[in-house]
Design a protein that fits this description.
Length: 198
C-alpha cells in the first residue's frame, strides 16, 4: 500500500510473487543453475525455516559490489526491492557462492521478514546460527554478544563467553557462518552433495 492507502505497483508485485515466479525468473535468467538454486532455497526454507520464507527474486551475478562480498540479501520493510544475490565467477568452473552461502543469506531474509535485526552483530543472528549449526552439524557453538574489554592496556572488542565460560566464536567467524565453523553444504544448487563438517 502506498502512503495514501492506494495499492502501489510494487506492493501488488510483492503480494503476487510466488514460488513459481521465483523459479521461472531464475530459470530464464540463469538456466539450470538458477533452477537448481531456487529448488535448494525451497528445500532449506522447508527444512530450516518451516516454510516461513516468502519467495524472493534470486540473482546470480559474476561480481559483487565492493570486491569482497560473496553474497547479500537486500530487503526493504515497505516491500520494494527484495532479493538474494549470490556471486558466481564468470568462468562458472569454480563457484564462489555455494549452498552454505545461500543458507547464510536465507537467515538474513528470515530475520528481515520477522522484523528482527538481521545484522551479524545482533542477537537474532547469533541465535539463528547457533540453532542451525546444531541442526546441520550436531555441534553446539556459542556466538556471544560483542563487548569492549581491556587487553594489555588497549581497548579491544571481543565476543563474550557463555555463562559457563565457554568461549564464543569471534565476530569474524560469526559473520562467515557456516563456512567458519567448517560446515560444507556443497556447490550452489547441488542437492546431491552430502553435507558435512570439514
Amino acid at each position: 500500500m502506498g502512503k495514501n492507502g492506494n495499492v502501489t505497483c510494487s506492493s501488488v508485485l510483492h503480494e503476487r510473487f510466488t514460488f513459481d515466479d521465483m523459479l521461472k525468473f531464475a530459470t530464464e535468467a540463469w538456466g539450470p543453475l538458477g533452477t537448481r538454486t531456487v529448488r535448494m532455497w525451497a528445500v532449506y526454507n522447508e527444512r530450516y525455516f518451516g516454510g516461513a520464507l516468502k519467495p524472493v527474486p534470486l540473482v546470480i551475478t559474476h561480481t559483487q559490489p565492493f570486491g569482497r562480498l560473496l553474497a547479500f540479501c537486500s530487503y526493504h520493510p515497505d516491500g520494494e526491492g527484495r532479493t538474494i544475490t549470490v556471486n558466481v565467477p564468470k568462468d562458472h568452473n569454480r563457484l564462489l557462492a555455494d549452498n552454505g552461502t545461500l543458507l547464510h543469506e536465507m537467515i538474513h531474509q528470515y530475520l528481515f521478514e520477522r522484523g528482527e535485526h538481521a545484522g551479524h552483530d545482533g542477537s537474532p543472528w547469533r541465535r539463528e546460527i547457533m540453532r542451525l549449526n546444531l541442526a546441520l552439524a550436531g555441534i553446539e557453538i556459542w556466538a556471544g554478544p560483542s563487548k569492549l574489554t581491556r587487553v594489555n592496556k588497549k581497548v579491544v572488542r571481543i565476543n563474550a563467553p557463555d555463562s559457563n565460560g565457554r568461549p564464543s566464536l569471534t565476530q569474524g567467524e560469526i559473520e562467515r557462518w557456516p563456512h567458519a565453523t567448517g560446515i560444507r553444504l556443497g556447490q550452489l544448487g547441488d542437492s546431491n552433495t552430502q553435507q558435512g563438517v570439514a
